[in-house]
Each structure stands twice: as structure tokens, then as C-alpha cells.
Amino acid sequence: MSRRVAFFDVDGTLIRKRTMFDFQEYYLRSTLSEPEASREIGRFRELFAVYALQLPREQVNRNYYSTYRGRSETRVRSCVESWYAALLADLGSWRIERTWQALSAHRKAGHVVALLSGSFVEILAPLARQLEVDAVLATQLTAIEGVYTGEIAGETMIGDGKLRRLHQFLEQEQIDAQDCFAYGDHPSDLPMLNAVGNPIVVGRDLELDAYARSEGWQRIDA
Q1: Which domains, and CATH codes, for the chain?
Q2: The whole model's pTM is what?
Q3: 1: pLDDT confidence band, cut at 50, 70 and 90?
Q4: What is the DSSP code (8-state) at residue 95?
């Protein structure tokens, strides 16, 4: 039997959290005193609400990661672990049960399981451990002497960037895309979904749902 990979987007596909933004607020509250933390969170929300309306998602991501400039890798990783530990106290409210079950089924079937996300590798690390995935294909940041520069190493894992990373991974593993699965929840996931033989749409995005229906793709409510 040929090897197979199941690629999973994360935000909106496996979990109901926006990992990048949820962690950002946790980090600010963990590293700043009040009321400075609340002011910074307010500024961040207002700025990125504008970005979301005016800029492509790839640029929004780059702008987000620019906020990491000057942050210590060690401190960010420590905050990620405490952030995720706090989330686990309310796991049932943000886990999308049907896709977690699907991921578990792929593992049991012996498939390679990979997270393919625009989120940050370090932010996804504790989730990846819990889910026992084989690979995390996500955004990587440049750091110099343990301090983030605010620059992305390579490209953002959104849209065509996600597609190129998928093909790169399959080429490395010598696996046929037509034997693989992909799970996504947003129209920006279409390049990834169209690349595999078994695309699965998660959630109720109107544009993506209409496309899935026209193509006869499997759909999962979230």
C-alpha cells in the first residue's frame, strides 16, 4: 500500500482559537503590567482589524510577526507552554471534535499526519505534541543570538505558500498527492485542498462550502 499524508490546517479546522492572536494577548498580559498590557492589546486589536480589511492575509501575517522583533526565543517558548496549559483547562470549548477524531483515525490507519498552518511553529508545538503529529509545517521566524528579528524565514504558510510547502514535503517523502488528504476551513486553503486526492472542508464558510458542494467534496460541520 502506498504511503499517505493527512494535512490539517489548525485555526478553524482543528480548534476554534485564532492561535496567533490569542497567544499575542496572553504574551502581552504575561510580560507587561496593567494598565499597559490592556492599552497594548487594545492598540493591537484596532490595528489588525484595519489590516484585515485592507491587506492580503499574507501581509497581515507578516505584520503580525513583525511584532516579535526583539522578543527572546526562550521567553516566547516559556509563555507558549503556560498559555497552552491554561487553554487545556477548557479544552472542550475550543476543540473541534470531529476533526480531532478524523486526525486520530488517520494516525490509527498508519498515515503520516502533518499540521500545515500560517501560525508560528513554536505556538503550535504543544498542540502538536498532544495530537502526536508527525510534522509541523508552519511559519518560521528568523532569530539572531536567541532574539527574534520580526522577519519570517521563507514565506508565509497561506494560500500558494501552503501549497508549495505541501508539494515540498511530499517530494521529500516521495508520496503521491492523489493518495493524500487535506482539511481546511477558509477559501485561502483552496490551493492546498485542490492539490490532494481527498479534500475535506471544515465549517461553514459560505464561499468554501459552495465550492465544496460543486466539486462533491466531503464536508465536516464545526
Answers
A1: 5-220 (3.40.50.1000)
A2: 0.95
A3: low
A4: B
Sequence-ordered list of residues with C-beta below 8 angstroms from that of 40, at least 6 positions apart, any chain: 28, 32
Q: What's the pLDDT tens digit per position in 159-205?
A: 999 999 999 999 999 999 999 999 999 999 999 999 999 999 999 89
Closest C-alpha to 160, from 135, 134, 195, 185 = 195
* Neighbour count for residue 203 (Cβ, 10 Å): 18
Angle value at C-alpha 47, between 83 and 57, nearest 5 degrees: 80
CB atoms within 10 A of CB 164: 15
**pLDDT tens-digit readout, 17-64:** 999 999 999 999 999 999 999 999 999 999 999 999 999 999 999 999
Q: How many CA atoms lie within 13 A of 189 on its CB side?
A: 30
DSSP string across 36-58: HHHHHHHHHHHHHHHHHHHS-HH
Nearest to 77 by CA among 117, 40, 44, 125: 125
CA atoms within 13 A of residue 100's CA, in its CB half-sphere: 13
